[in-house]
Amino acid sequence: LNQDIECIVSDGQTLPSTWTNRFDYVMGSFSVIFFKNVPQGLEEICRCLKDNGKSKVVISSWGKAEETPAFQIFPDAIQQVAPELLEGSKPKRITGIPPVLKSIMEQAGFVDVNVVGPIKRYISVPSSEAFYDRFALGSPNTKGTVTKMSPDQRCLLKAKVMELAEERGGNSDGTIEIPSCAYFAYGTKPLRNLSQS
Fold first, then answer.
1. Which terminus of the chain is less hemmed in, N or C, by CB atoms within 10 Å?
2. Which residues contact 142 (CB under 8 A, 6 or more apart)?
3. Cα(7)–Cα(189) distance, rounded to whole angstroms?
4. Among the ranges given (27-31, 88-92, 109-113), the one the predictor scored with the smallest mean pLDDT
5. pTM for the full model?
6. Which pairing describes strands 111-125 and 56-62: parallel, antiparallel, or unpaired?
């Protein structure tokens, strides 16, 4: 590409009004699923796509718990080390199974919605400690939970996460590989009926 690219940080649930009918394509890579109000975020994306009947969106989402074992290690470890931190907590993301993705895309106004998957990929890291660091330091939700723990609980959590990572995906060379499945949802913004304008 020989074009300038501009990066803008914005709340995905309230995108700039100047973006209305501006884009041909939008891609949400494992982001929309974490919005507090996913339908609202998708409606904003739909608003920002051009009204030409050709503008497309694709979003990706991790599957249900049984399909994403890598993402179950921290909750399982926290349940064993500091269960009080999980009491009353809700999942921080939607479950990206086909009926859910299709429904929220259609609610947001997209047509010709198609969901592809599951697509299996491996979460691969060089060690169980690297697995801990990837999620404890890289996931805002996990990082927030870890900061609520006492130093002793953090040490216990790290040991338990490393143990579970080795049990569930450890290789003889010390690397960790744990499968997780994702889904991709594609949709089109419908052609605007000019008689309604």
1. N
2. 74, 135, 136
3. 24
4. 88-92
5. 0.81
6. unpaired
